[in-house]
Specification:
The complex is a heterotrimer of chains A (about 500), B (about 525) and C (about 160).
Chain A (H helix, E strand, L loop, with lengths): L3 E3 L2 H18 L4 H21 L1 H5 L3 E7 L7 E5 L1 H27 L5 H20 L3 H19 L5 H33 L18 H14 L11 H4 L5 H28 L1 H7 L2 H21 L3 H22 L2 H32 L10 H4 L1 H15 L6 H14 L3 H26 L4 H5 L12 H19 L2 H11 L4
Parallel strand pairs in A: 1-2
Antiparallel strand pairs in A: 2-3
Chain B lengths: L4 H22 L4 H26 L2 E4 L12 E4 L1 H28 L4 H20 L3 H20 L5 H31 L4 H10 L5 H18 L8 H7 L2 H26 L2 H7 L3 H20 L4 H21 L3 H32 L10 H4 L1 H15 L5 H15 L3 H27 L11 H4 L9 H19 L1 H13 L7 H4 L6
Antiparallel strand pairs in B: 1-2
Chain C lengths: L1 H9 L2 H19 L3 H22 L17 H11 L24 H32 L4 H14 L1
Helix pairs in contact in C: 2-3, 3-5
The chains are: A mainly alpha (about 500), B mainly alpha (about 525), C mainly alpha (about 160).
């Protein structure tokens, strides 16, 4: 068993976002101070998260008991490698996105910005809660809070489209979590309440379920956490693209969907335990569902002309990578899954923010209109290219690292067919992302192409939009050069010290 | 003083009612303070009772000192379960009374004293039903509470209120009469009316006496009418939706819940779980009916366009939760039922308080009239959202935990149909309440296009509710969350009574049970 | 056959009468169209239950339970309690009590006392019900249920 340290740091990290809601509401008249409060909260949160890194790296586990809410199962935080990895990603990107949303929301003169920032902070609290959740009940609690807190963000425009998108969003997320994940949770509670439902590398369900019951339970969890967008419960994700772009960027490329896959990874590694799943030999069912999702969503993405929708389907495919990786159960595949959370986050948030920047600067939403835009918005599209490379998994970006682990993991698992799935989908990724970047710089239209490039003719989005894009693009490259921290955190989970 | 608490809680309310009557003759404005004082005292006393039960165990109080050997005294008997339900009743009573402050003053000036007299008698009747240890006394108090609620419902401004009250009277009287008849059979067979003594006599009998089976069936059928268990719920939706808001706020949360409580009491104390679950093989049937009740209530709630009617059908479904839970015949089912009696009382109170405020401030009767409420009445909506989340079963509200325990009970006893029904009902509740949220958030006709909001163009005339309405609502919302966070303490208390051998003496409930 | 008939019907004829009255009352409450007729049914129903209780307290040849011997007080009270604790059918077993007062001489007072309360409840219910039906008459101008429902429906369609 790893050494356990009792500390309130995870709670503070969580609360720093929640407490920010108060100044945000109080300072609603002073937009500058209001956004300042968001930044301060983001930096404080990141500080708390970073302060936990050394201890976790040394193989310890941080725990924080909140409420003994039922006899056996408390509400508690427990920080291990995976949780910290996810918290690091989310809190870093929150700061970047806050900056971006200032530019975006002001640039478009959106209404109800106070409500927007307040719910943004609440969503982050919930995300942190999921990341640090020490047991299944806590995980479920914050998962549901996140679904509810993001609804006003998704439907921010309050128009017809937002209404139907928001309806789909909640129907899918709440429907699956109450219909599938909740019964699975209670079943675990009935079966193994003595273990406190606490995540552990061995899995708390070991020996309590078998055969078909275990398979049903695993599928209930996998589909129940439908934030992961696994087919056939994926269609809320393109629907939720009606949200303002910062929301799409942070929540639908990072926080919400990643919370979904995070929960599924937790189910595999913490609830069942990899060893137990190997024994049960059921995870392959999930692998094939994920593989199907990878290929299908990539094919759908090819057909989409709306940039955000194309990115959304791309996200569905990338999330399925993560689920596929963890369901292979080999050490390298699982490590690949965990690091892919971070790698994909950096790449995809860049792409989304680029889409938003294009919209702010030109009002264009469709890929067919973006010919030659790279000349007007060189920074944006340079970043877009880097983000695309990262999502495809090409050097010099972090995407390569995680994809390398995923593919070798699939080989370890002795599943050549699934290796092929990874490779084919990589080609498809390239096919739906690279042409956008290419056309932006080298338009089809002769006239556009023949114009010489000059700095004077550029018309970038506001600096508050462009700077974050450059930061995340740089991050995608940094993750290629220095992925050690993430790998170390991820390896903690598979070597059994977590 | 502390020994007299059990009777004191009733006397305070009874004399409160008298005083209200006297005060009403002098000055109608005194009625409200007197009522609130009486209820606050009752709440304090019921807290004291809970304290005593926790410290000293079961309280047995003989009214006027006529202790048992004489055979004619009325016993008040309080264990942790009824102490908790009593606390729920007095709390709900106080909150709904505070809410009624302006409403009654404006609606029915001459009738203010009458309203408060009936109100206090209603709370007295309900409290008495909960703490009495005498089966016949329970009948009398059942009728006290029913009669007062008939009158309160008939006070509604709508023309239909009287018609609804009339059918409630007919159904209610049938229910109470069945109960009385059942008690008669019990008395003939056992020669006593004291619950504990009836239990002793029943366990002393050999085999299954058909007279006692008849008595049990009559009592349960009578109570089913009183608690509006499917298919005997016909009187409820009209009665609760056409009565004045201040009445529905107290009647809707309490009447059905106290009916369920009495059923639980009959099963635990009077007949004993061993007799009920082992001698009668009714569990399958009752749980099956509960499943139908849950599903039917949910489906009918979906079909409603009026806010209060929708809540009424949700109550029908929730009664199904509790009856099913009690008949799961295992530990967690019973714990879940008793816990849900409390949590559902507060959830329903929250719903009806919010509905009352909407009706008062904005004249809202139908759901689609709620457009734009998040902006117009943010605090009211905040309270309403908490109640709605509890109804759906989102942690950490109390609704989640009652579902957790009920579903656990269902899984452990293998009643999968019940488990599925609970989940479906949660989903239906999610649909119902998010439909409301959506209307309240977007407005009736969402504006086309981007970034424009309705309130730029029109200044809303609808204002946030007054403090006397908001305080009860927000207090209820806080209670809903606190009940959830401290559910473990409540469950401990409930279990203490379930495990008391004197009460049940059965292995069915006290075992920790498990699937395998 | 005759034996069974005697055992179940003749010996318990009071219960049968109560049940028949109850059914009459229930029938009226559910099927009658006129609200006052419904209330009459309700009264019959309640009275049947009162009859059931009171007849259960009667014993053959027993008199009203008023004690005339003032000398023995505590004992008697306790014994009376014991008597109250037995239904008529069990009386053979309690024959060993050879005190000055034989419980068999007195009918069981408790059901009567209970029914006093039940009568009060019944009267109160009837009073409330009559008051409510008066309000209904004021509102709708009729006491026929079908007409009232028709008027409600008409009002709904208008609104």
């Amino acid at each position: 068993m790893p050494e356990v340290i009792q500390t309130y740091t995870p709670l503070w990290a969580c609360l720093s976002a929640l407490l920010a809601v108060i100044p945000i509401i109080l300072l609603r008249k002073e937009s500058f101070l209001r956004e300042g409060a968001t930044f301060v909260a983001g930096i404080v949160m990141l500080g708390f998260v970073i302060s936990m890194v050394p201890e976790v790296l040394s193989g310890k586990v941080l725990e924080c008991m909140l409420v003994q809410i039922t006899r056996d199962v408390p509400i508690k935080f427990r920080v291990d490698g995976l949780g910290l990895l996810f918290a690091l990603v989310a809190s870093t990107l929150w700061i970047v996105t806050s900056l971006y949303s200032v530019g975006y929301m002001r640039g478009l003169k959106e209404h109800s910005q106070t409500r927007f920032f307040a719910f943004f902070a609440v969503s982050l609290t919930a995300t942190m809660g999921v990341a640090f959740a020490g047991n299944l009940l806590t995980l479920y609690l914050f998962y549901e809070i996140l679904s509810l807190a993001t609804w006003p963000l998704v439907t921010h425009h309050q128009d017809k489209e937002a209404r139907s998108g928001g309806r789909k969003y909640l129907t899918y997320l709440l429907g699956t979590s109450v219909g599938f994940a909740l019964p699975a949770l209670i079943f675990c509670y009935v079966k193994a309440s003595a273990t406190g439902l606490e995540f552990s590398t061995a899995g708390f369900l070991v020996g309590s379920v078998e055969g078909a019951t275990a398979l049903v339970l695993l599928l209930l969890f996998t589909f129940g956490f439908s934030k992961a967008g696994l087919m056939p419960f994926h269609s809320w994700l393109p629907g939720a693209m009606v949200a303002p772009t910062p929301v799409s960027a942070l929540l639908h490329a990072v926080a919400v969907v990643k919370v979904g896959v995070f929960c599924i990874i937790r189910v595999f590694t913490g609830v069942f335990g990899l060893e137990f799943l190997k024994e049960l030999d059921i995870a392959i069912v999930v692998s094939w569902i994920a593989a199907f999702t990878v290929i299908t969503s990539s094919l759908i993405a090819l057909t989409q002309d709306n940039l955000k929708r194309r990115l959304a389907f791309s996200t569905i495919g990338q999330l399925a990578y993560i689920i596929l990786g963890v369901s292979l159960l080999t050490d390298r595949a699982v490590m690949g899954s965990m690091t892919h959370i971070a790698m994909h986050a950096a790449g995809k948030i860049t792409l989304f923010m680029c889409a938003g920047a294009v919209f702010v600067a030109t009002g264009k939403k469709y890929i067919s209109e973006m010919d030659g835009l790279g000349r007007k918005m060189p920074f944006t599209f340079a970043a877009f290219t880097i983000g695309a490379l990262s999502v495809i998994g090409l050097p010099p970006t972090g995407g390569l690292i995680s994809k390398f682990y995923l593919v070798t993991g699939a080989m370890d698992a002795g599943q050549p067919l699934l290796v092929t799935v990874f490779l084919v989908s990589t080609l498809l990724n390239a096919a739906y992302l690279l042409p956008i970047a290419y056309r932006a710089f080298f338009p089809k239209d002769r006239q556009l192409a023949s114009q010489p490039f000059s700095w004077k003719s550029t018309a970038e989005a506001p600096w508050a939009c462009v700077v974050p894009i450059c930061i995340t693009a740089a991050l995608a490259i940094v993750l290629f050069v220095k992925p050690q921290l993430l790998l170390k955190l991820a390896s903690l989970m598979v070597t059994g010290t977590g | 003083m502390a020994e007299q608490y059990p009777i004191l809680v009733l006397l305070v309310l009874l004399f409160g009612a008298l005083l209200v009557g006297l005060a009403g003759m002098a000055d109608r404005r005194i009625c409200f303070p007197v009522t609130v004082t009486a209820l606050a005292l009752a709440l304090a006393v019921s807290l004291g009772i809970l304290q005593r039960v926790i410290n000293e165990g079961v309280i047995r109080y003989f009214v006027a000192g006529w202790s048992r050997p004489v055979g004619i005294g009325i016993e008040l008997r309080i264990d942790t379960i009824n102490a908790l339900v009593l606390l729920t009743i007095t709390t709900v009573g106080l909150l709904a009374a505070v809410f009624s402050f302006r409403r009654v003053k404006e609606d029915k000036t001459e009738k203010t004293p009458l309203f408060y007299i009936l109100y206090l008698l209603l709370i007295m009747g309900l409290s008495g039903m909960v703490i009495t240890g005498d089966a016949f006394n329970l009948y009398v108090l059942l009728e006290v509470s029913s009669l007062t609620s008939y009158a309160l419902i008939a006070m509604g401004k709508s023309r239909r209120a009287a018609v609804a009250a009339f059918s409630y009277i007919i159904m209610g009287t049938i229910g109470a009469s069945f109960y009385l008849l059942g008690v008669g059979y019990l008395y003939l067979r056992t020669g006593t009316l004291n619950m504990v003594e009836i239990h002793q006599a029943i366990t002393g009998l050999e085999g299954v006496s058909s007279a006692i089976v008849v008595a049990f069936v009559m009592i349960i059928v009578g109570l089913m009418i009183k608690m509006a268990f499917f298919p005997l719920f016909g009187w409820l939706p009209n009665a609760y939706s056409y009565c004045p808001s201040s009445t529905s706020c107290v009647v809707a949360p309490l009447m059905t819940k106290v009916g369920v409580y009495v059923m639980v009491r009959m099963m635990l104390t009077v007949f004993g779980t061993e007799w009920v679950f082992e001698n009668l093989q009714y569990s399958q049937w009752m749980v099956g009916m509960a499943v139908i009740a849950i599903l039917a209530g949910s489906v009918m709630a979906l079909a409603q366009v009026e806010l209060k009617k929708m809540f009424c059908y949700i109550i029908v479904a929730e009664v199904g939760y509790m009856v099913g839970g009690a008949w799961l015949a295992n530990h967690w089912g019973m714990v879940g039922t008793v816990y849900h009696i409390m949590s559902d009382a507060f959830m329903t109170l929250c719903m009806f308080l919010a509905a009352g405020i909407f009706l008062k401030q904005a004249g809202v009767v139908r759901i689609d009239q709620l457009d734009g409420m998040f902006r117009k009445m943010p605090l009211t909506m905040a309270g309403f959202v908490v109640g709605a989340l509890a109804m759906i079963g989102i942690p950490p509200t109390c609704g989640f935990f009652s579902k957790l325990y009920l579903i656990r009970g269902g899984m452990e006893s293998g009643h999968w149909g019940y488990v599925v029904a609970l989940l479906i009902s949660s989903l239906v509740n999610a649909v119902l309440f998010f439909r409301i949220f959506e209307i309240a958030y977007f407005g009736k006709k969402p504006v086309e296009g981007h970034g424009h909001h309705a309130d730029h163009s029109e200044r809303s005339v609808i204002k946030e509710a007054r403090l006397s309405a908001l305080v009860p609502l927000l207090t209820t919302a806080v209670i809903i969350i606190l009940l959830g966070i401290f559910n473990q303490d409540l469950v401990d208390l409930i279990e203490r009574s379930l495990k008391g051998a004197e009460v049940i003496g059965s292995a069915v409930l006290s075992g920790e049970g498990g699937l395998g | 056959m005759g034996e069974i008939f005697k055992q179940y019907v003749i010996d318990h004829f009071n219960f049968w009468i109560a049940v028949i009255l109850m059914m009459i009352g229930l029938y009226a409450m559910i099927t009658k169209n006129n609200l006052i007729k419904k209330l009459i049914g309700m009264s019959i129903f309640q009275t049947a239950i009162i009859l059931f209780y009171v007849s259960a307290g009667v014993k053959d040849g027993a008199t009203i339970p008023i004690l005339e011997h003032h000398a023995v007080e505590v004992e008697q009270v306790e014994m009376l309690a014991a008597a109250a604790g037995h239904s008529p059918s069990e009386h053979a077993a309690s024959g060993h009590e050879s005190h000055a007062i034989n419980p068999d001489d007195y009918s069981n007072p408790l059901p009567h006392v209970l029914m006093l309360t039940a009568i009060v409840v019944g009267v109160a219910t009837l009073g409330v019900a009559l008051a409510v039906s008066q309000v209904i008459y004021k509102n709708y101008g009729t006491l026929e249920e079908s007409e009232i429902l028709a008027k409600i429906k008409a009002a709904e369609n208008d609104g």
